[in-house]
Amino acid sequence: MFGTLFIKECRQVLKSLVYYIYVVIFVLFITSQMSGEDELREPQPGWSYYGETVTQDDDLIMEGTLAHLIQEVGRNSFTTYPIGFYKEVNLTDGEIEQVKAILERCTGRSFEVLDEEMEQQFIQNSVGGASYQAAVKEGLTYAEFEAAMEEVCDLVGKGSFYEKGNYENSISVPMTYEQAKEEFDALSTKDGLTRAYMRLFCDYAGIILSVLPIFIGVSRALRDKRAKVQQVIFSKSASGIQIIVSRYLANLVMISIPVFLTALLLQQPFYYRAQTMGIQGDIWAFLTVPGIWLLPEIMTVLAVSFLITEFTDTIWTIFLQVAWAFTSLISATTLVGDFGLKLVARWNTLGRTLLYFSLEKELFFNRGFYFLLAAVCVILTVLVYEKKRRGGESVHEKLRKFDK
Amino acid sequence: MEMSIEIRDLTKNYGKKQALSKVDLTISQGMFGLLGPNGAGKTTLMKILTTLLKKTEGEVTICGVPVEKNRQIRDMTGYLPQDFSMYGNMSVYEALDYLAVLSGMSKSERKSKVPEMLEKVNLLEKQKIKVKSMSGGMIRRLGIAQAIIHDPKVIIVDEPTAGLDPEERVRFRNLLCEIAKDRIVLLSTHIVGDIEATCENIAVLNQGKICFKGKVTELLSMVEGKVYSAEIAAVELEKVKEKYMVTGILVTGSTANIKIIADEQPFSQARQVQPDVEDAYMYLMHKEK
Amino acid sequence: MRNYANLISSFVKKQYYPHLLLVLLLALLSGGFVSLKGLESVQAAKVMEMYVAFIGLILFTPLFMPEQDKAIWNLERSKKTSMWKVYLFRMLPAVLVCLLTIWMFLYQMKRGGGIFDFDILFRGSCCEIFFLGSIGFFVSAVTNQVIIGYMIAVIYYVVNIGGNNYLGKFALFRMMKGDYGTWMYWLLGAVLLFASGIVVREKIAYHKG
Fold first, then answer.
1. Sign of the torsion angle spanned by Cα atoms B64, B66, B69, B70
2. Fold that domain B4-215 belongs to in CATH
3. Of A64, A129, C39, C201, which is the most exposed, with the fewest CB atoms less than 10 Å away?
4. Backbone phi, psi, residue A90, to 5°
5. What is the pLDDT of residues C76-109, one digit of tens each?
6. Nearest CA of chain C to the CA of A102: how many Å?
7. Cα-based distances in Å from C108 to A105, C35, C85, C113
8. A404: pLDDT confidence band, cut at 50, 70 and 90?
9. Hey, is the C-beta of A83 within 8 angstroms of any chain C C-beta?
């Protein structure tokens, strides 16, 4: 019975307007974003510029972060992103003095001296050149610096530049030839080029897939009520598991097909280009990379929309999930990495292979979490469905009664 | 195995509101009519029988199986809900096939049964039509086809003739009678004519209580000799209506032919006539008040 | 006139009130998402365009919810009041709440020491938010599926975040880039979509669905 239900459900999807809108929007969005992404050459010695990289050097991080702090203290205007949206924080005079004391502790110079120093640097370097770095006090350890920044965070509030995860991923410096070469080698050997390309694909696809499946899920879960078929289906012998899981999987598969197909079509030209460069690409990257990055996301978005819609019999989940998607998108401190437990995992670059492998575990943990979350939501949906079937009411119906 | 539905002391509460109160009923093979005004609790009773609602108190068994055994009950019942419909974008054939799958039928079973059922309800030629372009009568027929396709012992139909034209209604009743030959068919309606034409055994439900159960003839005997017909001046109509229970009026020009239920002859020109089920039902409802 | 007042109040009571509550929620939660204190014109525009803009699609997309049940639509069409009047009267609370919310946000930002031109930002925000709302309105009018209305409006928003060049003068988020000149395009788009939504719905969509 399950297989037949699944096939019939897939046919249902193919008859719904929402699905075709999904396919068209997805393909248009991806192809418009992915065009012209091929700054790809093996670095040669003697170039003047090899691109930038986020520095891992403790001294550079400290100097850059402190310079940033001096600027913000000067204006008494601290940029924060507590839940993603911009929020400006202004400190009281007392608090500003505390921050100035922290600065002095780290650099050994008073704020007035530092401010002057920075201005001089700006005048000297008004035409390009290196940005200002505030030299630290002799003997300042990184741990001391971290503690100092925590104090700043306590004053400024959540989501500022002075959180460890932020400043450690924000200070970029020009790459040397060796670094660039190392990156490129990793890209071509460890990633076979195509995997890196697919990661970029997942970045764009992940944005739009954090919202599109909501509408397919809501539309499916409400269809029974709209078509007035709830009662008759309830009275059939098929179990809630069979009904809900076949629906869920059918929708999941139908949503995923255009994703993987687009990935394959975009990957192929790139795969052949890699060959002409003498690099053996990974032909299965279009399956493995989106399988890990995107599938758990689609699963979760769809499962949550099933669950909440089945529970409430309304379209409320659209608002909830759109808010969730946006919060996830704008709360990322960097467009490359910073996975945490965010719904959308960003990797807005072609390459950075070494960084990727250092963060891979975090990504797997994140995606594993969403995989489980989706499974839990599907199970809950089955329970809600069985409850409704035995005369339970959705929240919506209860409210309606309350109205009367 | 016994072919009957046994309902003992069945009570159903929605919060403080009592929808069914101590209902006792035995329904055996054949057509059984459940009559009652809107809101009497008919749909609640039917939903309990089809496992769609949990009862509050009492015992219900269908062919010996307690109604708590969802799966078994669903296997042996077919249900046509009051507002039956199907996904508008499916064809008649697809819709029936889909519901047959949900009843756990295999591919080969469906291949033979679906056309057979469509034939039976006279939809075979229309099998390619989309559900959204079907008429009310066609949807009802599709509804009955889905209720019987898995060959259930018990068929429960809720207000099946509401919204059908007279011809469709007659055809539908005949179809039900045919199906009822070797099954229990429980038919609920507030249209007295449906019952009169098809059922031998009936129960009348009012405000959650059974106020009559038995044969149609027994119901009729309750008003035997109490139904009168008379010709009066149309202007007197209001006065008569105030005083007696009038079950039928036909005004022609300045005179009105009326039908009255009264324990004794109301006035001299009134003459006794044969009662029909509608008269009996009206009498019963009047008494309940 | 009383009939129309009834029409509005029954729509609000039966169908629309959750959406009004949602707007209220959006306003109440704004403190957690955005700061309304000490904003310059670019930051103020960003709050209006990226956060407050959602009220447009929340308020204007669900106006056709009752008629998703075709039986209700049939019944309404059989009444004396013409449908376009019914729709216009339903838009009334949406427009009022929308204007009021926009004004409140701007007022709060001004009170918080914001440095921006109130009138120009008010005009631009209204036009842009109406325009975003009119997209949801039009799509749900024509498809008679509120879900698709929300879908397209949300997607329009997302595509604009990506900074799409194909949308020309109708692109969103112009004011936070310092461009206050496209308000009349938004207004034009909104008026066109509102009007044609009603016309297409009654003249074509009704007979198809």
1. positive
2. Rossmann fold (3.40.50)
3. A129
4. -115, 135
5. 888 888 899 999 999 999 999 999 999 999 999 9
6. 25
7. 39, 10, 35, 9
8. very low
9. yes
